[in-house]
Amino acid sequence: QIDTWNRDEMNLTGGKFVPGPAPKHSLAPLSGVDAIYSGLLECPLTTRIRKHITGGGWNDSVVPQIYGCSDSKAAHTCSAAGGEPIATAAACFAAAQELPALSAAGIKITTSSGADPALPAGCTLSFDGGNETAALFFNTHASPTGCCGAGVTATEGTQTVMLGADNVSVALSLDNAVGGSATITMSGPDARWFGVGFDTISMSNAPYAIVVDGAGAVTEHVLGEHLAGIQINASVTVVKSSVAGGVRTVVLSRKLAGATPQHHSFDPLKLNLDIIAAVGSTSAFSYHLAKGTSSVALWPTNPEPTCVCTIPAAPFSKGMGTLEYLPTGETIGFNLRCNLDDGTESILRDHNPTCDIRTYVGGLSTCHHGWHLLDAEQDIPWQDQPITYYLKYRLYFQEYDPSQHIAVFDNTWSIGGETGEYDVPQCPEGTPVEECQHEINGTVVPGGSNTHFVAAHYHCHAPTCLSMEIWTNSTGELRCEVGGGCTGGELLCREEPYYGQGANIGPATGDSDRFDEPGYIAQRVCLWGLHPPFEKPPLVSGVPLFVRAVTNSTYGHHGEMALPQMLVANF
Q1: Contact 322, 365 (CB under 8 A)
Q2: Cα end-to-end distance, the chain, whole Å
């Protein structure tokens, strides 16, 4: 729930909406006839949030690499890992400032260059975490034989994820000896569950995770998107479990290779591993109280040279990373979301800001429990005046009768990327309101062999959404004009919302309608049925469907959505 109640200018029993304070990235009007909603509803990016961008933003980044050192020399070069070698000694030594491990306080860095036939070519780094030293060397030999990783037998690293009042720490020690073993040390609050997911920045990737409950029991899971997922067979052995000062620490061991494809396989050649962490409010594994994401830097346990390579900046839509809420340290992963490079998503073609963390300025990803939506330099008002609200539901149902009822299923699509959200850019100043329209579109192909549409509901946000259409494009000849009509396909559904006019508000008696207030939106739906007056449910399995959503762009908007929420039946 986003609190938009301006205590100084409004009351809870009626009256005109008056916007309250807003951060600088808010796009909603603060005065005039259009100021009937709060920009906080769109969760603009604030100065309370810091972006941590994987790969160095729009600039190339520097990373350490080790390789398997096979017989093929080409297999252990920067180019083989998708990077580029560092060309000069000066660039090599400057790279030290970009590596997090070397920027830590107390690390003594030495630099040198020369022609050594036994060392790898180019820029190498030998890091000794125990003695807090790092040696950078630039090899000028024309054809050296050394390989980064040749003497590496094990790597290790530690990271702590801050989750408000709680911390979750994980230490990894990966031994690449015959058989390969991993030692995993996890620490978190005693009496409540905590867990870590590996090689991911989001639950949506179905990552492998280890959970420790409040009693110290250890379980392994494959997580779901905003779901607990499934528990899988145990592959770890509990070496030690202890509690001190309200913190539980467990030491676990397992093989590097996962027992099944669901058990993550740790790569001993990977020097950086993304993780997610969470803590609960109960002893048993349940919905998390706080969550965050980070990464573990892994270094050889013996100071063998690692290659230092340049990784080119990711192209637009490939920028990923994390969003950190600075007051608590909670972090949220920002992964690929506009990844249909075949051109079927217009938000990617149009370089919509929501597609890349480097251009993201607000929406669903910056809207989380306990995250204040004002900038850091703004005071949080009315903290002594909490709002209490109530929800009332009325459900209608019929007892299931297989002779007349057919089961239906929800099938929600997105034409706004993986998260369903996108930004609406403001139309040029002076454009008539009726011409201020923005369209996104995308193609969806339903699966199965007997999937039929039963109902369609257009999920969008007031006060922007104007219409949604679903067209068939079986022949590939569908042609649509932005702001106009389509030819070459069949229109299955068109929905236009109804906006309250504010002319007929009063008690729910007679001809009055207490819900007909300005800004109130009612979304009409498309329905199909087996009996008149409904049209027959269309068969859509394997049919390319072109979905277009049109919004008003008099003002810009963050976090708009265009979700065709479908009910389908198989018959």
Answers
A1: no
A2: 39
